[in-house]
Amino acid sequence: MISLAIVGALALILIFVVVTTYNGLVRKRGAVDNAWAQIDVQLKRRHDLIPNLVETVKGYASHERQTLEAVVAARQQAVSAQGPHDQAAAENMLSGALKNLFALSEAYPDLKANQNFAALQEELASSENRIAYSRQYYNDAVLAYNNGIQTVPANIVAGMTGFHEREYFQAPGEERGPVQVRF
Known about the structure:
Elements: H1 2-60, H2 65-80, H3 83-107, H4 109-113, H5 115-150, H6 154-161
Helix pairs in contact: 1-2, 1-5, 1-6, 2-3
């Protein structure tokens, strides 16, 4: 009778550990999904600003069509990208296109002095900071989640219930190298 009570108590403890571990993993997975959604919100904000910026520049630098078309094409690719790896690559391409667009302002003093252009440029810079923070938050959530599904006993529960590692939001390989400065 006592051994049956001990087995019953151990079974209850095991069930409690499994349920608690599973619920913890669900919360961590939810945090990763929420963090990804926050990146998406910030990227949408950035993508919404770009058409206004392009229209402002068109008025001053209409013959710079190639640069403007590159920004529009990069924006389209960024909007349609799926997953952290593709999204990172598309956003890096968009950032490069925007750098070229902002370089135009140096060649057009009237554009540089335009209040709409300056306001849009400031909004875009603010968006870039928010995106960087959101990416960091996402990667922190992925770290907590991935560590959670790899540690004992959670790895057993994760394996039985279908939890899989998530991908970090990383810059492509060429973006991670040292910055070359040339004078």
